[in-house]
Amino acid sequence: MQHSKLILDTVGSIKAYIDVLKPRETSLLIFISLCAAVVATGGSFSPGRLALAMATVALGSAGVNGLTNYLDRDIDARMFRTRNRSLPSKRIDPPEKALLLTLALTAVSLGLAWVLHPLCFAAGMLGTIAASTRRKTVVCPFFGAVASCSPVAVSWFAFRPEFSLPLLFLCLLICVWVPIHVWSVMLAHRDDYVGGGVRYFPLSKDNKEAVKILVLLSLPLVATSIAVFYSNHLGWLYLAVAGLLGVLMLYANFRLMITRASYEAWRLYKLSAFPYLGVLFLAMGADALLT
């Protein structure tokens, strides 16, 4: 009986530490970084270098996501949606145990990034600083946009260590996408966020005004996705997918503007994650391999 309990406790502890690293968010960052690397190389890459770049992105994304969980633990404890996460629920106690893990993962990632190229290290360091600065404030989504660009930049610089318009448009795409993604979930759980002490935009405005900003942002999002097509010389597969996904995002945003319902904000949030960003980058990578 004691042996079985020890096994269950160990499994539970491992799961708690994995949860701290936000596996879904981390997986999305790894995936889009992999696709960006394929685009950067035109589909011709060294498997060994690609594996090193992906290990760098995986460790860094997991480490930084875990760090944001540590920094947000007090607010998470006050919110119904997040109170059962590993740190606010005290499944990991004291929380400094998780902090050590996240810092170790981040440090190893930065070391690997330096091995790849100094520009990879700079991108990784910038993303780490941006993600851990000014948490749960009005500038958080914009700093989060920089942090979300970091893995893509690391994988790109691993193969093309230079600043270029193709990389710029990829980063612009992510920078426009992040506020839509973040603000839509905040609108979907407005009362929960306000109860947790979060009062900045879009919660500082009523839904009628806030959703107009999301609609306006969806326009440059679609435009930037088309700019990616031209700047990276992609084929018709990507353009068709980008067009379809763009229509879906515009439709979801306009439905939210019309209804202003929390469930429509939640639908937009879910659509904007893998169905939009993931499939869009998948189409990029597939197009680069096929053309």
Number of helical segments? 12
CATH fold topology of the largest domain: Tetracycline Repressor, domain 2
Determine the structural class based on helices, strands and strand pairing: mainly alpha
CATH homology superfamily name of the largest domain: UbiA prenyltransferase
| Low-confidence runs | none
Name the average pLDDT.
92
| Proportion of strand residues | under 5%
Total discrete domains: 2
Return Rg in Å: 20 Å
Q: Give the N-to-C terminal Cα separation.
A: 59 Å
Question: Helicity, in percent?
Answer: over 70%
Largest sheet entry: none
SS elements, strand count: 0
- CATH domain class of the largest domain: Mainly Alpha
Describe it.
With 291 residues, this protein is mostly helical. It folds into 2 domains: 1-161, Tetracycline Repressor, domain 2 (Orthogonal Bundle); 164-291. The protein contains 12 helices and no strands. The longest helix has 29 residues, at 262-290.
Compact description:
This protein has 291 residues and is an all-alpha fold. It has twelve helices and no strands. It has two domains: 161 residues, Tetracycline Repressor, domain 2 (Orthogonal Bundle); 128 residues.
